[in-house]
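=== RUN LOG ===
request id: a7f3
mode: sequence -> structure
chains: 1
length: 211
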Amino acid sequence: MKYVIFDMDGVIVDSEYTYLESKTEILKESGKEMPISYQYQFMGTTYEYMWSTMKNELNLEKGIDYYISEMNRKRNEMIERDGVKPIKGVQKFIKDIYSKGNKLAVASSSPKHEIIRNLHELDLIQYFSCLVSGEEVENSKPHPDVFLKTAELLNIEPSKCIVFEDTKNGSLAAKAVGMYCIGFENPDYPKQDLSATDLIIDKFDGFSLDN
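=== RESULT ===
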């Protein structure tokens, strides 16, 4: 049996664009016009971490709760317009590895309700033994808290886990506790630094954990 942990945004769900676009738009409305590339550093981190950092760096006037709420409002409009979009090939991949008796989990910086909603929308929630959100741990990725919590719930040593991550922050978090990390390099997004990973793939179609 293998213990396989998935990040959600950018690995299961094609949602990174909703963060990049909404945050860039909010900063522009706040008089802080930044290139979308400024947001790459926050991929894989919690809402509180990204907005507290931006508030301090850019001297934003309003409270963190306001910016998180506004980001979620804009993101929800995009999701209502576009639907919850899966990463190509990931639904079949998840079903295939589950059918072979492996144990699956999600470890994401996103809020728990978003994890549950997305997995329900994609008809995948039944394949996962546990779902862990960044809300449930003290420190955001690149700290390994969310992965340690997931391994604890799976009742397995962290070093026995395989992780799929698409960001620098997530891959550093996984490797910090000795997990085998497979980096997913989405060809539709700018390249992240995945040099900490053990293996890099750019598609789920045709990939097997038995290779």
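=== NOTES ===
Helices lie at 16-29, 47-58, 64-82, 90-99, 112-121, 145-154, 168-176.
Residues 24 and 38 are 8 Å apart (CA to CA).
=== END ===
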